[in-house]
């Protein structure tokens, strides 16, 4: 059963993102490089957030619950802002890269558009964020143990998997919106991305009784079961511990594998409010998806034509003037993946 939970949650969390990678990124070496670089930028932002959190916890009084809660809120906001700052730095780097590609090309055109870079960079941010969100939880899902043995809900792993999936998609859409705002100097679009990021982080943080968010999305505070013999992830946990006392001891525990990634254990394995964070997160994802689709050149007509597509003719222009996969268009005027002319086929519209 634990193996089934592991693979089920893995495919729920990363299956859609893997499909995006295979169909839209894997065949282009330049896109793979951009994706890996985007994941690296997100990882650096996590490292700096973790460092600040570690210093703040060590310098504060662990017995002061109000102070520890304030530091936690500060850590959430600081991590979100730092992630978006690194997204901006990555945009500036990619803008310089486009100028270099144009200078090196024979026809004076870049082999990849800024819209495509935004999409691939967003996928890179999302994949790395999702990996850090689920890696500890998936390790626990393999067992040993029985989910819900203490009368708690058995949906914790499933809820976390769906939350990871929505965060990967959100980072993808945020990347498109953020780059569009930078490219057109629409700073309100950038502000909207930051606010949405804070809202998602806050919704999950509010749903968790003992959240620990260094990544900007607080579902990464992997709640562990009640203390039980043989359970390997309760470093120095003692009966009746407060979060502050446990955190202070865990930071100084050399056996803790990641002292800057604290996972404070709540009283029970399942927080009944945690699943409630899925609804606002998915609503925000839907709004961000529609917004990103429209900014990328999509329209209702494009989407309708894509959904009605029966076949694609590679590199062939049909009587309606539509292109096959080489131009990201198919018969009846549909665009591959329905993303419109701006995101995946901007360079082949003539």
Automatic annotation (TrEMBL):
Tell me which UniProt keywords the record has, alphabetically.
Membrane, Notch signaling pathway, Transmembrane, Transmembrane helix
Where does it reside? Membrane
* Membrane-crossing segments per the record: 6-25, 32-55, 67-86, 117-135, 155-180, 187-206, 273-295
Q: Which residues form a coiled coil?
A: none
GO terms under cellular component: gamma-secretase complex
Query: What membrane topology does the UniProt entry give?
Result: Multi-pass membrane protein
Task: Note whether Transmembrane occurs among the keywords.
Answer: yes
Query: Which top-level group of life is the source organism from?
Result: Eukaryota
Q: What main location does UniProt list?
A: membrane
Database matches in Pfam families: Aph-1
Q: PANTHER family, per this entry?
A: GAMMA-SECRETASE SUBUNIT APH-1 (PTHR12889)
How does the record describe its quaternary structure? Answer: Component of the gamma-secretase complex.
Q: What does this protein do?
A: Potential subunit of the gamma-secretase complex, an endoprotease complex that catalyzes the intramembrane cleavage of integral proteins such as Notch receptors.
Similarity section: Belongs to the APH-1 family.
Protein name as annotated: Gamma-secretase subunit APH-1
Organism of this sequence: Anas zonorhyncha (Eastern spot-billed duck)
